[in-house]
Design a protein that fits this description.
By secondary structure, the protein is mostly beta strands. It has one domain: Immunoglobulin-like, CATH 2.60.40. The protein contains no helices and twelve strands. It has strands at 8-22, 26-29, 33-34, 44-51, 58-66, 73-74, 80-84, 92-93, 96-99, 107-113, 119-127, 133-145. A hairpin with a 6-residue loop joins strand 5 and strand 6 (73-74). The radius of gyration is 16 Å and the shape is globular. It starts with 7 loop residues before the first strand and ends in a 5-residue tail after the last strand.
Protein backbone atom coordinates (compact mmCIF):
# COMPACT_ATOMS: atom_id res chain seq x y z
CA UNK A 1 0.00 0.00 0.00
CA UNK A 2 1.28 3.46 -0.86
CA UNK A 3 1.88 6.15 1.70
CA UNK A 4 -1.05 8.38 2.70
CA UNK A 5 -0.97 11.86 1.20
CA UNK A 6 -2.62 15.10 2.15
CA UNK A 7 -5.04 16.21 -0.56
CA UNK A 8 -4.72 19.92 0.17
CA UNK A 9 -2.23 22.33 1.64
CA UNK A 10 -2.17 26.03 2.50
CA UNK A 11 -5.59 25.89 4.17
CA UNK A 12 -6.79 29.38 5.13
CA UNK A 13 -9.76 30.13 7.37
CA UNK A 14 -11.26 33.59 7.95
CA UNK A 15 -14.50 34.97 9.40
CA UNK A 16 -16.79 36.43 6.73
CA UNK A 17 -19.69 37.49 8.98
CA UNK A 18 -19.61 37.46 12.77
CA UNK A 19 -22.69 35.91 14.34
CA UNK A 20 -25.62 38.30 14.10
CA UNK A 21 -29.38 38.56 13.70
CA UNK A 22 -30.67 40.07 10.46
CA UNK A 23 -33.43 42.19 11.99
CA UNK A 24 -33.66 45.19 9.67
CA UNK A 25 -34.26 45.91 5.99
CA UNK A 26 -30.67 46.36 4.85
CA UNK A 27 -27.81 44.96 2.78
CA UNK A 28 -24.82 43.59 4.67
CA UNK A 29 -21.52 42.79 2.96
CA UNK A 30 -19.00 40.50 4.59
CA UNK A 31 -15.35 41.23 4.91
CA UNK A 32 -13.49 40.72 1.63
CA UNK A 33 -11.37 37.61 1.16
CA UNK A 34 -8.10 38.13 -0.75
CA UNK A 35 -7.39 34.99 -2.75
CA UNK A 36 -3.75 36.02 -3.20
CA UNK A 37 -3.28 35.44 0.55
CA UNK A 38 -0.02 37.34 0.68
CA UNK A 39 2.55 35.34 -1.30
CA UNK A 40 0.58 32.07 -0.96
CA UNK A 41 -2.32 32.34 -3.41
CA UNK A 42 -5.22 29.95 -2.82
CA UNK A 43 -7.25 28.52 -5.66
CA UNK A 44 -10.18 26.69 -4.06
CA UNK A 45 -12.58 28.87 -2.04
CA UNK A 46 -15.82 28.06 -0.27
CA UNK A 47 -18.00 30.20 1.97
CA UNK A 48 -19.72 28.28 4.76
CA UNK A 49 -22.96 29.83 6.02
CA UNK A 50 -24.93 28.85 9.13
CA UNK A 51 -28.41 30.27 9.70
CA UNK A 52 -30.62 29.93 12.75
CA UNK A 53 -34.29 30.56 13.44
CA UNK A 54 -36.32 32.45 10.81
CA UNK A 55 -39.14 34.67 12.12
CA UNK A 56 -39.88 37.00 9.21
CA UNK A 57 -38.48 38.69 6.14
CA UNK A 58 -36.79 37.61 2.95
CA UNK A 59 -33.01 37.18 3.14
CA UNK A 60 -31.09 36.74 -0.13
CA UNK A 61 -27.44 35.62 0.08
CA UNK A 62 -25.06 35.78 -2.89
CA UNK A 63 -21.35 36.09 -3.69
CA UNK A 64 -19.73 39.20 -5.14
CA UNK A 65 -16.23 39.48 -6.57
CA UNK A 66 -13.80 42.24 -7.43
CA UNK A 67 -10.42 42.62 -9.15
CA UNK A 68 -9.41 45.53 -6.89
CA UNK A 69 -11.46 45.33 -3.63
CA UNK A 70 -13.41 48.45 -4.55
CA UNK A 71 -15.69 47.71 -7.54
CA UNK A 72 -17.93 44.73 -6.75
CA UNK A 73 -20.18 42.69 -9.06
CA UNK A 74 -22.49 39.74 -8.45
CA UNK A 75 -20.79 36.45 -9.28
CA UNK A 76 -22.40 34.78 -12.29
CA UNK A 77 -24.51 31.73 -11.42
CA UNK A 78 -22.17 29.56 -13.53
CA UNK A 79 -19.30 30.48 -11.18
CA UNK A 80 -21.14 29.55 -7.96
CA UNK A 81 -21.48 25.99 -6.75
CA UNK A 82 -24.11 25.82 -4.02
CA UNK A 83 -25.14 23.16 -1.54
CA UNK A 84 -26.99 22.88 1.72
CA UNK A 85 -26.58 20.84 4.88
CA UNK A 86 -29.05 18.09 4.01
CA UNK A 87 -27.81 17.60 0.45
CA UNK A 88 -30.90 18.88 -1.32
CA UNK A 89 -31.15 21.81 -3.68
CA UNK A 90 -33.26 23.70 -1.13
CA UNK A 91 -33.87 27.38 -1.83
CA UNK A 92 -30.78 27.71 -4.03
CA UNK A 93 -31.38 29.05 -7.54
CA UNK A 94 -29.52 31.25 -9.99
CA UNK A 95 -26.35 31.43 -7.91
CA UNK A 96 -28.09 32.75 -4.81
CA UNK A 97 -29.73 31.44 -1.65
CA UNK A 98 -33.10 32.80 -0.48
CA UNK A 99 -34.30 32.22 3.09
CA UNK A 100 -37.95 33.21 3.44
CA UNK A 101 -39.53 30.63 5.69
CA UNK A 102 -39.06 28.02 8.38
CA UNK A 103 -38.38 25.27 5.84
CA UNK A 104 -35.02 26.92 5.06
CA UNK A 105 -33.85 27.99 8.52
CA UNK A 106 -31.64 26.18 11.05
CA UNK A 107 -29.38 24.82 8.32
CA UNK A 108 -25.88 25.08 6.84
CA UNK A 109 -25.10 26.14 3.29
CA UNK A 110 -21.93 26.22 1.17
CA UNK A 111 -21.07 28.61 -1.65
CA UNK A 112 -18.21 27.34 -3.82
CA UNK A 113 -16.48 30.08 -5.82
CA UNK A 114 -15.36 29.12 -9.32
CA UNK A 115 -14.54 32.60 -10.62
CA UNK A 116 -11.23 34.25 -11.43
CA UNK A 117 -11.26 37.51 -9.46
CA UNK A 118 -8.85 38.22 -6.62
CA UNK A 119 -11.38 39.38 -3.98
CA UNK A 120 -14.61 37.65 -2.93
CA UNK A 121 -17.28 38.55 -0.37
CA UNK A 122 -20.70 37.36 0.75
CA UNK A 123 -23.61 39.79 0.55
CA UNK A 124 -27.07 39.47 2.10
CA UNK A 125 -30.09 41.65 1.38
CA UNK A 126 -32.93 41.55 3.91
CA UNK A 127 -36.41 42.93 3.16
CA UNK A 128 -39.81 42.91 4.93
CA UNK A 129 -37.94 42.29 8.18
CA UNK A 130 -38.88 43.20 11.76
CA UNK A 131 -37.57 40.30 13.88
CA UNK A 132 -35.64 38.59 11.10
CA UNK A 133 -33.25 35.66 10.85
CA UNK A 134 -31.20 34.72 13.92
CA UNK A 135 -27.69 33.35 14.40
CA UNK A 136 -26.27 34.08 10.95
CA UNK A 137 -22.54 33.43 10.70
CA UNK A 138 -20.28 32.85 7.69
CA UNK A 139 -16.67 31.85 7.15
CA UNK A 140 -14.22 31.60 4.28
CA UNK A 141 -12.30 28.35 3.82
CA UNK A 142 -9.67 28.25 1.11
CA UNK A 143 -6.95 25.82 0.06
CA UNK A 144 -4.83 24.55 -2.79
CA UNK A 145 -5.06 21.01 -4.10
CA UNK A 146 -1.80 19.17 -3.53
CA UNK A 147 -2.29 16.69 -6.37
CA UNK A 148 -4.27 16.85 -9.57
CA UNK A 149 -7.14 14.40 -9.52
CA UNK A 150 -7.24 12.40 -12.74
Amino acid sequence: MGSPRTLVHEVVYAIALNEQTLAADTTIDSAAFDRENGANAVHELVVGLDVGLWVDGTHIFHLEDSPDNSVWTNVAAADVILGDGDGTAGPITGGQLTILGVTNDNDQYVFGYNGAERYVRLSVESTATTTGLADVVAQFIAANPRDMIR
